[in-house]
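Hello again, I could really use a second opinion on something today. I've been staring at a protein lately and its backbone has me curious. You're getting the sequence in one-letter code plus the fold written as tokens. I'd be grateful if you could look everything over and explain what you see. No rush at all, and the record is pasted right below:
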Amino acid sequence: MVKRVVILGPESTGKSTLCRMLAEHFKTLWCPEYAREYLELHGTAYQFEDLLKIAKGQQVLESGFLEQLMKEKSGDKREKSNSLLFVDTDQYVMKVWCEYVFGDCHTWILRQIASSSGALYLLCKPDLPWVADHLREYPDEKPRQELYHMYRDLLIHQTVPWLEISGNYEERFQMASKAVEVL
């Protein structure tokens, strides 16, 4: 069985960097955030319905990485049972994004959340300096904190273990890798 380690948090909190570092360290794969690909292709003037397309695209992308990982590990049952997949965002991110921007969430996203979970969630605190990016929307501290607290509230009210990740990139990696080793 593949254990999903999902990295969540507001924009510019080091999620992708942390995923890459962890996947390299644990010699496995990581699934990037599909929203970046979608927004690069369709532009940043998205509507509520676009978020459902992005959510479904994220699901398909992650399924592809899970399938690839299972194929790579299929020769050794012991190794297969201990496989890890690091995921840069999941349906919780889509829920927060829908609610923060549009005040509503697609039922499909809520159903996905109810039917799947990670083995561990890592919540990146917005204590890294903001890095500008043409796809990022919220450089100000207030929205970053609001989004962080929305993610935190979601994690508090679910049953999968989670850990807050903070500090510089190396400190984040050290905290996260120790938590993953416990798995």
The longest helix spans residues 48-73. The first strand starts at residue 2 and ends at 8. The chain has eight helices and five strands. The CA atoms of residues 75 and 81 lie 11 Å apart.
